[in-house]
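Throughout this chapter, every protein is written as a compact record of paired, labelled lines. The reader may check this reading against the record printed directly beneath this paragraph:
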Amino acid sequence: MQARIIDAVVEMVARHGISGTTLANVATTAGVSQGVLVFHFKSKEGLLTQTLVRLLDEYRAAWQAALAAETPLDRILNLVRTDFDPIICTNRKLALWFAFWGEASAKPIYNRLSSESEEERFQVMKQACEELSSVAHVPDPAWLAQSIDAHTDGLWLQMHLQGPEFSPEKGLSAAFSHLRLLLPDLAGAINP
């Protein structure tokens, strides 16, 4: 039942934003009473926080699976692929990400959870870039990691603003084109 409730929150935030998401519309969408929501989540804030935790956990599980690749380049490519995976990168989930990020300055819990998750993911990308520098020309691994992640974030923003006409496949293609520019010596090995 909690998964169904969280799915309803995702739907409501995607449609109405955080401020327009209410216990009443989540309860109606999930097919439960508001009392059930209060019992399980205590408040709208608790419900939204658990939704963010689930979103972050889902993303973490996806990118951690990408680390199974043997070479640093393959780990980097897999991390980028994860950002455009159809389970991770949907219009509804992008709306949710941007809603939470938009509230992060006003809600310390969203800021803390998002910042910790971003830092963990960045450190993994940075480590892969550092390992890549031992076998290929990478002038500054930390800069490379920041550039990759910043570009992916920018592509997510374009996808969020443009909607279905900017597909995850188009985003992945753009991300890989960017990687080829950043790593010209490895361009031939960078394929979606």
Observations:
- The first helix runs from residue 2 to 20.
- Residues 63 and 79 are 6 Å apart (CA to CA).
